[in-house]
Amino acid sequence: KKLIIINGPNLNLLGTREPDVYGSLTLVDFLETIKAKYSKIKIDHFQSNIEGELISKIQEVGFSYDGIILNAAAYTHTSVGIGDAVRAITTPVVEVHISNTFAREDFRHHSFIAPNAKGVIVGFGLQSYELAIQSFLNE
Ligand code: DQA
Protein backbone atom coordinates (compact mmCIF):
# COMPACT_ATOMS: atom_id res chain seq x y z
CA LYS A 1 0.00 0.00 0.00
CA LYS A 2 1.14 3.47 -0.88
CA LEU A 3 -0.38 6.43 0.96
CA ILE A 4 0.52 10.10 1.12
CA ILE A 5 -0.26 12.72 3.72
CA ILE A 6 -0.65 16.15 2.10
CA ASN A 7 -0.64 19.12 4.44
CA GLY A 8 -1.55 22.67 3.48
CA PRO A 9 -0.62 26.14 4.72
CA ASN A 10 0.75 26.77 8.21
CA LEU A 11 0.82 23.10 9.15
CA ASN A 12 4.64 23.27 8.95
CA LEU A 13 4.30 25.27 12.18
CA LEU A 14 2.65 22.42 14.10
CA GLY A 15 3.96 22.32 17.65
CA THR A 16 4.47 26.06 17.90
CA ARG A 17 1.30 27.32 16.24
CA GLU A 18 -1.64 27.79 18.67
CA PRO A 19 -0.71 24.65 20.68
CA ASP A 20 -4.03 24.86 22.56
CA VAL A 21 -5.81 24.21 19.25
CA TYR A 22 -3.33 22.06 17.31
CA GLY A 23 -1.23 20.37 20.04
CA SER A 24 2.46 20.66 20.92
CA LEU A 25 3.89 17.88 18.77
CA THR A 26 5.89 19.03 15.74
CA LEU A 27 5.06 17.77 12.27
CA VAL A 28 8.47 16.10 11.96
CA ASP A 29 8.07 14.22 15.27
CA PHE A 30 4.53 13.22 14.47
CA LEU A 31 5.44 11.86 11.02
CA GLU A 32 8.35 9.91 12.48
CA THR A 33 6.03 8.23 14.99
CA ILE A 34 3.37 7.42 12.42
CA LYS A 35 5.89 6.02 9.90
CA ALA A 36 7.43 3.78 12.57
CA LYS A 37 4.04 2.55 13.71
CA TYR A 38 2.85 1.75 10.18
CA SER A 39 6.21 0.59 8.84
CA LYS A 40 4.63 -2.10 6.64
CA ILE A 41 3.09 0.50 4.35
CA LYS A 42 4.69 3.37 2.46
CA ILE A 43 3.56 6.72 3.83
CA ASP A 44 4.88 9.74 1.97
CA HIS A 45 4.43 13.31 3.11
CA PHE A 46 4.15 16.65 1.36
CA GLN A 47 3.56 20.06 2.89
CA SER A 48 3.19 23.37 1.11
CA ASN A 49 1.94 26.84 1.90
CA ILE A 50 1.24 27.38 -1.79
CA GLU A 51 -2.14 26.46 -3.31
CA GLY A 52 -0.81 25.56 -6.78
CA GLU A 53 1.88 23.28 -5.34
CA LEU A 54 -0.81 21.36 -3.47
CA ILE A 55 -2.83 21.00 -6.68
CA SER A 56 0.25 19.80 -8.62
CA LYS A 57 1.04 17.19 -5.93
CA ILE A 58 -2.56 15.94 -5.91
CA GLN A 59 -2.36 15.52 -9.71
CA GLU A 60 1.05 13.83 -9.49
CA VAL A 61 0.02 11.13 -6.99
CA GLY A 62 -3.68 10.98 -7.82
CA PHE A 63 -3.57 8.19 -10.37
CA SER A 64 -1.05 5.81 -8.76
CA TYR A 65 -1.31 5.99 -4.96
CA ASP A 66 -3.81 3.93 -2.96
CA GLY A 67 -4.90 6.83 -0.81
CA ILE A 68 -4.42 10.52 -0.08
CA ILE A 69 -4.85 11.93 3.41
CA LEU A 70 -5.45 15.62 2.83
CA ASN A 71 -5.45 18.44 5.34
CA ALA A 72 -5.72 21.46 3.06
CA ALA A 73 -5.91 23.67 6.18
CA ALA A 74 -7.29 27.14 5.36
CA TYR A 75 -7.55 26.30 1.64
CA THR A 76 -10.24 23.77 2.59
CA HIS A 77 -12.60 26.69 3.02
CA THR A 78 -11.52 28.77 0.03
CA SER A 79 -10.06 26.67 -2.78
CA VAL A 80 -12.28 25.71 -5.70
CA GLY A 81 -9.06 24.59 -7.40
CA ILE A 82 -8.10 22.03 -4.75
CA GLY A 83 -11.70 20.78 -4.67
CA ASP A 84 -11.61 20.34 -8.46
CA ALA A 85 -8.23 18.54 -8.27
CA VAL A 86 -9.67 16.03 -5.79
CA ARG A 87 -12.58 15.45 -8.16
CA ALA A 88 -10.26 15.05 -11.17
CA ILE A 89 -8.14 12.18 -9.82
CA THR A 90 -8.88 8.50 -9.25
CA THR A 91 -7.06 7.95 -5.90
CA PRO A 92 -9.52 8.21 -2.99
CA VAL A 93 -9.01 11.20 -0.71
CA VAL A 94 -9.80 11.31 3.01
CA GLU A 95 -10.08 14.90 4.27
CA VAL A 96 -8.73 15.41 7.77
CA HIS A 97 -8.67 18.24 10.27
CA ILE A 98 -6.90 18.38 13.60
CA SER A 99 -9.40 20.71 15.23
CA ASN A 100 -13.18 20.35 15.17
CA THR A 101 -13.82 22.92 12.46
CA PHE A 102 -17.57 22.76 13.16
CA ALA A 103 -17.01 24.00 16.69
CA ARG A 104 -15.11 27.05 15.38
CA GLU A 105 -15.89 30.09 13.23
CA ASP A 106 -18.64 29.82 10.59
CA PHE A 107 -16.13 30.27 7.76
CA ARG A 108 -14.55 26.94 8.76
CA HIS A 109 -17.82 25.05 8.40
CA HIS A 110 -17.70 24.89 4.61
CA SER A 111 -15.33 22.61 2.71
CA PHE A 112 -14.70 22.62 -1.05
CA ILE A 113 -13.05 19.20 -0.63
CA ALA A 114 -15.64 17.24 1.32
CA PRO A 115 -18.14 16.77 -1.57
CA ASN A 116 -15.37 15.05 -3.56
CA ALA A 117 -13.77 13.15 -0.69
CA LYS A 118 -14.29 9.53 0.29
CA GLY A 119 -14.82 10.67 3.86
CA VAL A 120 -13.95 13.33 6.39
CA ILE A 121 -12.29 12.97 9.81
CA VAL A 122 -12.49 16.08 11.95
CA GLY A 123 -11.52 17.07 15.46
CA PHE A 124 -9.44 14.20 16.85
CA GLY A 125 -6.20 16.11 17.08
CA LEU A 126 -3.27 14.48 15.31
CA GLN A 127 -5.11 11.18 15.74
CA SER A 128 -7.31 12.34 12.83
CA TYR A 129 -4.44 11.42 10.49
CA GLU A 130 -4.05 7.99 12.07
CA LEU A 131 -7.76 7.25 11.77
CA ALA A 132 -7.52 8.18 8.09
CA ILE A 133 -4.57 5.78 7.60
CA GLN A 134 -6.58 3.04 9.29
CA SER A 135 -9.52 3.68 6.96
CA PHE A 136 -7.29 2.67 4.04
CA LEU A 137 -5.93 -0.42 5.81
CA ASN A 138 -9.36 -1.90 6.37
CA GLU A 139 -10.05 -2.13 2.66
C1 DQA B 1 -7.29 22.87 10.08
C2 DQA B 1 -8.56 23.70 10.28
C3 DQA B 1 -8.58 24.89 9.34
O1 DQA B 1 -9.76 25.64 9.52
C4 DQA B 1 -7.39 25.79 9.62
O2 DQA B 1 -7.35 26.85 8.68
C5 DQA B 1 -6.10 25.05 9.67
C6 DQA B 1 -6.03 23.72 10.24
C7 DQA B 1 -7.18 21.73 11.11
O3 DQA B 1 -6.46 20.78 10.84
O4 DQA B 1 -7.80 21.79 12.18
O5 DQA B 1 -5.05 25.60 9.27
O6 DQA B 1 -7.30 22.30 8.80
From TrEMBL:
<dbReference type="InterPro" id="IPR036441">
    <property type="entry name" value="DHquinase_II_sf"/>
</dbReference>
<feature type="site" description="Transition state stabilizer">
    <location>
        <position position="17"/>
    </location>
</feature>
<feature type="active site" description="Proton acceptor">
    <location>
        <position position="22"/>
    </location>
</feature>
<keyword id="KW-0057">Aromatic amino acid biosynthesis</keyword>
<feature type="binding site">
    <location>
        <position position="108"/>
    </location>
    <ligand>
        <name>substrate</name>
    </ligand>
</feature>
<feature type="active site" description="Proton donor">
    <location>
        <position position="97"/>
    </location>
</feature>
<dbReference type="Pfam" id="PF01220">
    <property type="entry name" value="DHquinase_II"/>
</dbReference>
<comment type="pathway">
    <text>Metabolic intermediate biosynthesis; chorismate biosynthesis; chorismate from D-erythrose 4-phosphate and phosphoenolpyruvate: step 3/7.</text>
</comment>
<dbReference type="GO" id="GO:0003855">
    <property type="term" value="F:3-dehydroquinate dehydratase activity"/>
</dbReference>
<dbReference type="GO" id="GO:0019631">
    <property type="term" value="P:quinate catabolic process"/>
</dbReference>
<feature type="binding site">
    <location>
        <position position="77"/>
    </location>
    <ligand>
        <name>substrate</name>
    </ligand>
</feature>
<protein>
    <recommendedName>
        <fullName>3-dehydroquinate dehydratase</fullName>
        <ecNumber>4.2.1.10</ecNumber>
    </recommendedName>
</protein>
<dbReference type="GO" id="GO:0008652">
    <property type="term" value="P:amino acid biosynthetic process"/>
</dbReference>
<keyword id="KW-0456">Lyase</keyword>
<dbReference type="GO" id="GO:0009423">
    <property type="term" value="P:chorismate biosynthetic process"/>
</dbReference>
<comment type="similarity">
    <text>Belongs to the type-II 3-dehydroquinase family.</text>
</comment>
<dbReference type="GO" id="GO:0009073">
    <property type="term" value="P:aromatic amino acid family biosynthetic process"/>
</dbReference>
<dbReference type="InterPro" id="IPR018509">
    <property type="entry name" value="DHquinase_II_CS"/>
</dbReference>
<comment type="subunit">
    <text>Homododecamer.</text>
</comment>
<feature type="binding site">
    <location>
        <position position="84"/>
    </location>
    <ligand>
        <name>substrate</name>
    </ligand>
</feature>
<comment type="function">
    <text>Catalyzes a trans-dehydration via an enolate intermediate.</text>
</comment>
<keyword id="KW-0028">Amino-acid biosynthesis</keyword>
<dbReference type="InterPro" id="IPR001874">
    <property type="entry name" value="DHquinase_II"/>
</dbReference>
<feature type="binding site">
    <location>
        <position position="71"/>
    </location>
    <ligand>
        <name>substrate</name>
    </ligand>
</feature>
<feature type="binding site">
    <location>
        <begin position="98"/>
        <end position="99"/>
    </location>
    <ligand>
        <name>substrate</name>
    </ligand>
</feature>
